[in-house]
């Protein structure tokens, strides 16, 4: 086992153990952070590794969220099935959007993904009769059960969040270390050259987007099922920007960066909002500091200076 | 036997502007053909059109007797044309080894065959072997050019196209790259070279094709150019 794999297993082991020591409030937070970090990791596949700056990942998260939520509400499909549906919905949406959006690159790609995400958001509002729009709906507690365990129970919820995050993180690690990951990095560095070397760039990018969409869908479905609430906010632009922010903070194209970024940003907002209403200003200062001292994110800069083997 | 690479009557456009007017050329196995001409004559566009980057509107590109002019660029690369564009363009964040690996993986060859190809490329460019784990963006200009060529050779191309490979390099590097081009010729690779500077061409080229306004003009043996300055004067505006 290489030290890179060892490090990631150690982080997962630490997270598994943390739940026995953390006080109740932070215990609940960490479960939420792990689900959001899974979303950030999904974003990292396209943005960090393949270099595609999407402004529309909220639609993949939302696709998972609503697939699980609506299936429970109208189809009577309980938790494990909802998660599977969420993964499928995220991947499918990403593939369909990708086929169209990947005809563009750079700024146009940002605009096109943003446009699709806004269309998805408005679709949620348009079908308010079923989705309840902004107000959202609560998933019935009998739908939030896995193997007879109640996902509303803090310990079960923590384990479920841990399982989803662990799967997505190990998936990211596998992508990062695979030859597919190499090709994505090559595309990020120079798309045309990669094409000249004989790679079907479109196909590789579509694959990356579908994998990312599946992971984001899993995170969305997990969020709906673990916390029991489904609402249009989660499909809004804010949820396209947040993963970008988390990934930039932790370090794009590092496997652990999305988790670290999500953790830090979550607590930065949590702590600062407890003593000022201007907490977004503090976040702003933190981001400026980050760009000055850690231009490649925390782990990205560490990798550059201290630990070059970090995947 | 047909030539390895044969281009016939190629027309290419940038938008509405026609850049290539029925350009034709032929390169055989183990031969170095150099395209020579002024800035904007269409030399680089000719390479891009062969590669499928600028889709030709008319004409044919035959690789070993097979028309490849309608294939997408990534398939043309797989068919066996290695292209090293001007200005190198490495994957700067990746290491030297990873850059070469990207080249090696293209054809999905088995691991053992990859090792053999890599060994050969590193034999040609020993300096790369010393820097396998260095980030390629931190290499010197000459080393970057070697890596760009090395990466193209990882595809084991039948045709190698180089666009001004010695531009801006110091003499020792130019010499090294020249040796590699000659080594490729000795192995039977067809080499298509684009240059602007006559003195960079004459020592290596077998034949020189002059390109003017997107048309192929005279094609002469490089050895004849030494005496005949009229052609050089006419097409590139040098010579005494």
Automatic annotation (TrEMBL), chain A:
Entry protein name: Branched-chain amino acid ABC transporter permease
Entry keywords, A to Z: Cell membrane, Membrane, Transmembrane, Transmembrane helix
Coiled-coil regions listed in the entry: none
GO molecular function: branched-chain amino acid transmembrane transporter activity
Principal subcellular localization: membrane
Entry GO terms, CC: plasma membrane
Pfam hit, one: BPD_transp_2
Entry annotated with the keyword Cell membrane: yes
Membrane topology: Multi-pass membrane protein
Cell location: Cell membrane
TM region(s), chain numbering: 30-51, 83-102, 109-128, 158-185, 206-232, 244-269, 281-302
The keyword Cell membrane is assigned to this record: yes
């Amino acid at each position: 086992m290489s030290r890179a794999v060892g490090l990631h297993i150690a982080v997962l082991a630490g997270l598994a153990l943390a739940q026995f020591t953390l006080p109740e409030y932070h215990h609940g937070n960490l479960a939420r952070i792990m689900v959001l970090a899974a979303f950030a990791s999904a974003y990292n596949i396209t943005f960090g590794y393949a270099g595609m700056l999407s402004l529309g990942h909220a639609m993949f998260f939302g696709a998972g969220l609503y697939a699980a939520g609506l299936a429970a509400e109208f189809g009577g499909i309980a938790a494990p099935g909802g998660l599977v549906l969420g993964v499928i919905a995220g991947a499918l949406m990403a593939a369909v959007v990708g086929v169209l959006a990947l005809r563009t690159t750079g700024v146009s790609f940002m605009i096109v993904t943003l446009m699709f995400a806004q269309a998805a958001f408005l679709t949620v509002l348009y079908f308010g009769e079923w989705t309840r729009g902004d107000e959202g709906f609560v998933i019935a507690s009998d739908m939030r059960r896995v193997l007879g365990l109640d996902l509303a129970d803090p310990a079960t919820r923590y384990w479920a969040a841990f399982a989803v995050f662990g799967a997505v993180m190990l998936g990211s690690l596998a992508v990062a270390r695979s030859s597919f990951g190499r090709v994505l990095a090559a595309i990020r560095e120079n798309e045309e050259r990669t094409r000249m070397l004989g790679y079907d760039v479109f196909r590789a990018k579509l694959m990356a987007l579908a994998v990312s969409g599946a992971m984001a869908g899993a995170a969305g479905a997990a969020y709906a099922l673990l916390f029991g609430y489904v609402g249009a906010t989660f499909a809004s632009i804010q949820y396209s920007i947040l993963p970008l922010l988390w990934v930039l903070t932790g370090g794009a194209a590092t496997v652990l960066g999305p988790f670290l970024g999500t953790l830090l940003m979550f607590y930065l907002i949590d702590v600062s909002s407890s003593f000022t209403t201007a907490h977004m200003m503090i976040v702003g200062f933190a981001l400026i500091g980050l760009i000055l001292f850690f231009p490649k994110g925390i782990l990205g800069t560490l990798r550059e200076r201290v630990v070059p083997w970090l995947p | 036997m047909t030539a390895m690479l044969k281009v016939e009557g190629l027309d290419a456009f940038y938008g509405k502007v026609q850049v290539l007017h029925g350009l034709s050329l032929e390169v055989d196995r183990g031969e170095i053909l150099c395209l020579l001409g002024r800035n904007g004559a269409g030399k680089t566009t000719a390479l891009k059109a062969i590669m499928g980057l600028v889709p030709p509107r008319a004409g044919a590109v035959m690789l070993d007797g097979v028309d490849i002019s309608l294939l997408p660029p990534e398939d043309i690369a797989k068919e066996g044309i290695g292209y090293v564009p001007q200005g190198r363009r490495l994957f700067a964040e990746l290491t030297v080894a990873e850059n070469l690996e990207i080249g090696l993986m293209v054809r999905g060859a088995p691991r053992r065959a990859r090792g053999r190809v890599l060994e050969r490329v590193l034999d040609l460019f020993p300096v790369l072997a010393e820097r396998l784990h260095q980030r390629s963006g931190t290499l010197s200009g000459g080393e970057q050019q070697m890596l760009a060529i090395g990466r193209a050779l990882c595809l084991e191309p039948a045709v190698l196209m180089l666009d001004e490979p010695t531009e801006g390099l110091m003499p020792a590097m130019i010499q090294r790259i020249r040796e590699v081009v000659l080594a490729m010729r000795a192995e039977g690779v067809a080499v298509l070279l684009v240059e602007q500077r006559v003195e960079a061409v004459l020592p290596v080229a077998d034949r020189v094709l002059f390109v003017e306004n997107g048309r192929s003009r005279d094609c002469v043996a490089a050895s004849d150019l030494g005496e005949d300055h009229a052609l050089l004067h006419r097409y590139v505006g040098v010579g005494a």
